[in-house]
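We recall that each integer encodes one residue's backbone shape. We quote one record:
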Amino acid sequence: MLANLYIQNFALIEKLHLNFEKGFTVITGETGSGKSILLGALHLILGERADYGVIRDRDQKTIVEATFVVSNFDFTAFFEENELDFLEETIVRREISAQGKTRAFINDTPVGLNVLREFSEKLIHIHSQHHTIELRDPQYQLEILDTLSGTIPLRKEFKTKLTDLKRINSELKELESTKNKMVLDADFNAFLVAELETLQLDKTNYQQLETELKSIENSDDIKLGFGQLIQQFSNEGLETNVIHSIVSLRSKLDKLAGLHPELDKLAQRAKEVYIEILDIGEEALNQLESISVNPAEKEELTTKIDKYNTLLRKHNVTTQEELMHIWDNLASSITNLESIENTIQDLVSLKKTKEEELNSIAEVLNKTRLEAIPLIEQQVVTLLDEVKLINAKVVFDLISVDKFNDYGSNELKILFSPNKGMEPKSIDKAASGGELSRLMLVLQYMLSTKKQLPTIIFDEIDTGVSGEVAQRIGQILYKMGQSMQIFAITHLPQVAGKGQNHWKVSKSDEKGVTLTDVLSLNLEERVEEIARLMSGDNINSAALENAKALMN
């Protein structure tokens, strides 16, 4: 519900603050008084782009601010998604700076026009004789049918399952693409895996093998080294070797034992060196005897290491760990292909189940809609009779289609004939502006009995009608106002007389400046205004009595 509207420095309005009530509110005023200015301000709240020509005083900014009571609407997800503070009385504000820059706010948080539009369009709808485009929209027509036939919950369930099906199809498409690529690579990857498997990377230490091969290849030099150690560090060596020198030294030191403690320490260390040297010589002898070169072993090692180095270069790596990582990845790709194929099979099965569920719901939707259409058509025709479209005919032409859409497997065309003897045609070809407005009013009235609608502003939809038709339009608007907030900008006393609340737009000149003002009328002022609508500025007692009769 629109609770209040504040306008500042907008066109002919200097400053205006309006507080609105529930129910049916009429807005009247002479032509050119500024009723369209109010709509222009509300269009800013609806997220339309600003016309900088509306800035009245170029030294000040223009402000339009509306307060909506949103407690009856579920905006929880919207506020969370856009990181906005939720308030039951939510304030929407548009500002146009003196430089022409525009900003939008919801509860003092800056928002883009798309966010503002998404929010406001759910709360307020402006309808005029020239703005019936949505009635020609097939999706809006189906929305009308589903609301009146009570199939909205089932359709929402269908749409949720259809979203799931679309997600499944998307996943299948992506997996099939991945699978096809993997299949193309599978043979080559299998060859690479088999090639790497021959290296037995998980069981073989190629660094150790390289060390062994290096030893075999340098066995002569190694033997020479051990021989030199044996020659110098064993008793079997020549008398000139290290052992001979140490034995001679020990003999001399033994004779000097006890003469100096530090000398004794060094003599003891020399004995330990002697023992260590003998041990080195013995170990060198053992190692020398263990060295044997097997040509077959050498050839086998060479073959293994050559193959290992070849695969290192092939895969552009330098270590065994990197090569094992490549092996694991290639092996995983083969396993992943099997896993993807299993996943695809599961998704294909799930897709079939979803399609069966959707077919079942679509059949129920189609059946329920078809069963509801005759009664809905009759109700529309009955209401059109009330607004003096006596011979009008309305056909809800429901068509079954092969492809699912958000509404099931149906498409709808509302066909309309306002006159007897004319075949019903699509709305945009069959109706004049006034006829289309009355059809829209009838449908809006029927919708208002089925669901919570946003605030609706009817902008002179009664243009071109008078007398009893105007009276019936006023009655319908009044009935709609019993369950929702309705505004009607009108020139007709029959419509104005049915309002529960009445605002008058007027224009005046103050110090050479034209200003627009909007006043809330009390009962006496309402009678006078409705009388003016009937007889002009020359209001007589008869006009006043007629005005009272219309209001009653």
Remarks:
- The CA atoms of residues 393 and 422 lie 9 Å apart.
